[in-house]
Design a protein that fits this description.
By secondary structure, the chain is α+β, with helices and mostly antiparallel strands. The protein contains eleven helices and 13 strands. It has a four-stranded mixed β-sheet with strand order 8-13-11-12. The C terminus is likely disordered.
Length: about 400
């Protein structure tokens, strides 16, 4: 091959090489390069994902009744009724002796014969006056308050500040009950049916007792069953001033409930509004009888399938009571203990204790049928069972 031919061949190879190199370079420029990660992305890739903080379990405060219901002794501080009758507590409470010259305390296992000194003075005076002046043989005393007041494990929503007391309408016998009898003896119902006092049980002495109980100036209210209120309206005679304090309320058919006003000048004790000038024997009593009628009809109806049982209001917590009730609960170095009916016999007896009186009487089937079919209470032969004395 000549020198010129070799030179031409080398030149051709060089040109081909340059073309191929340019194509490869063009392809490298055209191909997308992977993007460099940002600083934030790099940190995110290296940092593990944070989980939301776990929610702390909600700690529910025990009901105040579970704390006050286990205390067996009073708060060793000055006597005070704190708060309202249904939202409060009792400091410096005193116990009514279980047996006095004119009274006996019932249901001793409940430990509810405590009260403010104002209540104890009233109970002793009423028992004495009723016996000496009205011929009542003596009082059978039901629930007053717990040693430090407060909500109870069973029974009442009031009776919390040591100014409430239940008094049986059963006369005290002429002997002292044994401890067993005080637990087992049942109070006598004053009713013949839901609307009527039984004339064979009710006596003029019952009227005198309630009249006497209402006459003292420190009494704010006395609660009785509407039928007993009706009976009092019929038998009060000309002296009717006491009727203003006697108010109808559910289930008070074997006892009456005395409520005293707060001691004068005592801060932190909440009174009820004063009673009005009316004796309560008119429109108010008529309204109560309408409610009794509705309740009697509702009680006769069978429960609807799947209906949820009535639970009532949730129990009070310590946060809902006056602040001083926390001091009362811990006074004297007491450590609050939550009631456990599985391990505390006293709490078990209280929570499972039967009512002090018999069940509320019911209408016989014929009377109930008449009421359900539109009959009125006044149209039934009920008032005739209560002749005026």
């Amino acid at each position: 091959m000549s020198l010129g031919s070799r030179a031409m061949r080398r030149l051709t190879l060089c040109l081909v090489t340059l073309v191929l190199a340019g194509t490869a370079a063009a392809e490298q420029v055209a191909a997308p390069r992977p993007a460099s990660p940002t600083l934030a992305q790099a940190i995110a890739e290296k940092t593990p994902e944070k989980k939301p903080p776990a929610k702390k379990p909600t700690v529910k405060s025990p009901p105040a009744r579970d704390l006050f219901g286990t205390v067996e002794s009073p708060a060793p501080i000055a006597a005070r009724a704190i708060g309202s009758y249904a939202k409060g507590c009792l400091a410096g409470g005193s116990a009514l002796p279980i047996t006095g010259p004119n009274w006996q305390v019932m249901r001793l296992s409940r430990n509810r014969n405590w009260g403010h000194p104002r209540l104890l003075d009233y109970m002793e005076r009423l028992a004495s006056d009723a016996r000496a002046l009205d011929g009542w043989p003596g009082l059978l005393v039901g629930d007053m308050a717990q040693p430090r007041g407060g909500p109870m494990l069973s029974g009442h929503s009031s009776h919390q500040i040591g100014l409430d007391a239940d008094i049986w309408l059963t006369p005290m016998p002429d002997r002292v009950f044994t401890a067993e009898e005080r637990e087992d003896v049942t109070a006598v119902s004053m009713l013949k049916d839901p609307f009527t006092v039984d004339p064979e049980i009710w006596t003029p002495e019952h009227t005198k007792l309630i009249r006497r109980a209402a006459t003292y100036p420190q009494v704010s209210r006395i609660f009785v069953h509407p039928a007993i209120k009706k009976k009092l309206c019929e038998t009060a005679g000309k002296d009717r001033a006491f009727l203003r304090k006697v108010r109808p309320w559910w289930n008070h058919y074997y006892h009456f409930h005395v409520r005293l006003s707060c001691p004068p000048g005592l801060e932190g004790c909440e009174n009820q509004a004063p009673v009005g000038a009316e004796d309560g024997c008119g429109a108010e009593l008529k309204n109560w009888y309408a409610m009794l009628k509705s309740a009697a009809i509702a009680a006769a109806k069978p429960a609807k399938p799947g209906a949820k049982p009535w639970k009532g209001k949730p129990p009070l917590t310590m946060a809902q009571l006056p602040r001083d009730c926390g001091t009362v609960l811990k006074a004297g170095g007491h450590t609050p203990v939550i009631a456990d009916v599985a391990t505390m016999p006293a709490a078990l007896r209280i929570a499972a204790g039967k009512d002090a009186g018999p069940p509320l009487p019911k209408l016989d089937p014929a009377a109930l049928a008449a009421l359900v079919n539109g009959g009125s209470i006044s149209g039934m032969p009920l008032p005739e069972r209560n002749p005026k004395r």
